Amino acid sequence: MKILVILFILISSSYADIVQDLHTEIEQDFIPKLTDKFGDCGEKSCIEFNDGKYYFKGADKKVCLPWTACSFYSCMEEKYNCESQKINYFTELAEPTCNQYVKNIGNNYYSQEGKEWVYSVMVCLQKGLIEECEINENCDLANPRVSCPHIVEFTLDYHPGCYINSGVGVCHLSFQDKWRIWNTVYPFMTKRERKQAWKVVWYCLTPNKSEMPRGF
């Protein structure tokens, strides 16, 4: 029994450190970008946690905050209301896939490098959306008919770069991790996502690789 308790603590701490490092990086590197755009938080914390979701709350605007939490996607759905356009990217693709990854991490499904990769990709994708929609103002909040298709196109194009450049990079994970990642995401994949996945596979098989941009 004592051995099982020790093992559980080791498994839990193995990704707790990963998560903490990503949170520190968000606070030190990404939040300053948001304060530059949306104003200083003043004496209060920039991070607000409400109803299971994380927000950045600047002087001028409150936005969904990239975090190691799948609730980011329900935050974005509440804001952009894409289901009203019968575009269920946040509710039927992004959040369910994210939740399955987190569940599998809890079941110790991936190696230590695999866990780091999953959480790093999660944050990479969320940051990309906030940069595109909020910082660069390329998602029209008043016009979901235009903004929601744009969000889907942007995010799917952005996926391969995050997969390849996050953590050790998917190309450098063990075969077991790659296979388990594929099994995690495959049930949720659209035709377009499968196309992007094969781009990543092809890239990994290509010699003399250079770093891939986030979207390509």
Helix run count? 7
Looking across the biggest beta sheet, what order are the strands in? 1-2-3
State the share of residues found in helices, binned by percent: 55-70%
* Number of self-contained structural domains: 1
Span from first to last CA? 50 Å
Radius of gyration: 18 Å
Strands, count: 3
Topology as a string of helices (H) and strands (E): HEEEHHHHHH
User: Which stretches are low in confidence, meaning pLDDT under 50 for 5 or more residues running?
Assistant: 1-12
Largest sheet: 3 strands, antiparallel
Structural class, by secondary structure, is mainly alpha
| Outline | globular
Please state the average pLDDT score.
88
Topology:
Blueprint (H helix, E strand, L loop, with lengths): L1 H37 L8 E4 L2 E5 L4 E3 L6 H10 L8 H18 L5 H24 L8 H22 L9 H11 L5 H15 L11
Helix pairs in contact: 1-4, 2-3, 3-4, 4-5, 5-7
Report on this model:
With 216 residues, the protein is mostly helical. It has one domain. Helices cover 63% and strands 6% of the residues. It has seven helices and three strands, in the order αβββαααααα. A three-stranded antiparallel β-sheet has the order 1-2-3. Strand 2 and strand 3 (62-64) form a beta hairpin. Helix 3 (89-106) runs antiparallel to helix 4 (112-135), helix 4 (112-135) runs antiparallel to helix 5 (144-165) and helix 5 (144-165) runs parallel beside helix 7.
Record keyword descriptors for this entry:
mainly alpha, 216 residues, globular, disordered N terminus, three-stranded antiparallel sheet, 7 helices, 6% strand
